[in-house]
Amino acid sequence: MAFLGQVFQILSRLALTGKARLAQRCNPPALAAICLALVLLGAAAVPVQANPAAPALEEYEAKAAFVFNFAKFIHWPETRALDEDLCIGVVGDNPFGTHILQLQGTRVAGRSIVVAFPATVADLLSCDLLFISASESPRLEALLGALVQAPVLTVGDMEGFAARGGMIEMYLRDNRIRFRINLEAARAAGLDISSRLLQLASNAEELMREQRR
Question: What backbone torsions phi and psi does residue 192 show, to the nearest 5 degrees?
Fold first, then answer.
């Protein structure tokens, strides 16, 4: 009850101010838990507001929390699911700053998160979830090609990421983080995305039709 009270207090502040100053009020694990609560409550679009003194920090703290929560709704093949660690990789420029490092050691389905910055194809293949930075847009197809049929969830926020073969694309609309899912790409990699997450994607109707096939 106390936790839900904290969630609703924060939601109230957001409604009153129209700004997400969560970076000032919550440490990253708390933010991750709150974003998960928002997802479970059906509020998939979390408002963000850039701080003029640090333009991207609040946005990418929220996006780091989304990355953490995406992992909670993915079922990896048994060969991966039995691993003790769950590796979250960031390839290219790191837009999260230290926020992504705050996920280190947190747990998803009993697995401890390890944050990595892969530099080789072998490193890419060792990740369970890979955030592909917008800096890698010119070589996105080559990166995705190296991961063909590998059980690696690819996430990005560059424009057209899902249309180009990425699995989950985060984007801002009306100052809110939203996401779309490429279910075909996830299935080809042997990944099962929970219907709870599919229903919260911006292309949910399309995904529900695909799921029934």
Answer: -110, 115
Residue whose structure tokens are 């229903």: 199
Query: What pLDDT, on the 0 to 100 scale, is given for residue 47?
Result: 57
- Cα 86 from Cα 82, distance rounded (Å): 10
Angle separating helix axes 28-41 and 57-72, nearest 10 degrees: 60
- The gap from C-alpha 89 to its chain's centroid, in whole angstroms, comes to 11
Mean pLDDT over 37-66 rounds to 62
Contacts of 199 (CB under 8 A, 6+ apart): 207, 208
CA distance 142 to 171: 22
Residue 213's pLDDT is 65
pLDDT in tens, 186-202: 999 999 999 999 999 99
Total-model pTM: 0.77
CA distance readout (Å), 7 to 17, 27, 53, 86, 194: 16, 14, 26, 27, 23
Distance between CA atoms of 117 and 76, rounded to whole angstroms? 21
76's tokens: 């990896």
Q: How many CB atoms lie within 10 A of CB 8?
A: 12
- For the chain, first and last CA: distance in Å? 40
Burial of 68 (0-12, 13-18, 19+ CB in 10 A): buried
Per-residue tokens: 169: 């694309």
Give the pLDDT band of residue 206 (cuts 50, 70, 90).
Answer: confident
Contact 94, 133 (CB under 8 A): yes
